[in-house]
Amino acid sequence: MVSAKNGEAPIQINQDTNFYVIELDKDKETEFLMGSDRQAYIVQIEGSSEINDINLSERDAMEAVEENLKIKALENIHLLVIEMKKA
């Protein structure tokens, strides 16, 4: 969706930041791999999910630092993930 200048997303910004949208159907799972020295802010746009054993409902948010995310959709979901260099 959005990436740093050296990224491959259609929209590029002059920051070391990437924006991702994750859509999953109910009971599906995926993993978001985060590199070392990276962090992410995750917003539950629709539905509810379990991310690394934390339950999120619509409009909830969480932060993750230097950890991969195991995401399970408890219902159909949309997530926004803003990933950036660790502060």
Automatic annotation (TrEMBL):
Residues 2-84 form the Quercetin 2,3-dioxygenase C-terminal cupin domain. This is Quercetin 2,3-dioxygenase C-terminal cupin domain-containing protein. PANTHER family: QUERCETIN 2,3-DIOXYGENASE. The lineage of its organism: unclassified sequences, metagenomes, ecological metagenomes. InterPro entries: Pirin (IPR012093), Quercetinase_C (IPR041602), RmlC-like_jellyroll (IPR014710), RmlC_Cupin_sf (IPR011051). SUPFAM superfamilies: RmlC-like cupins.
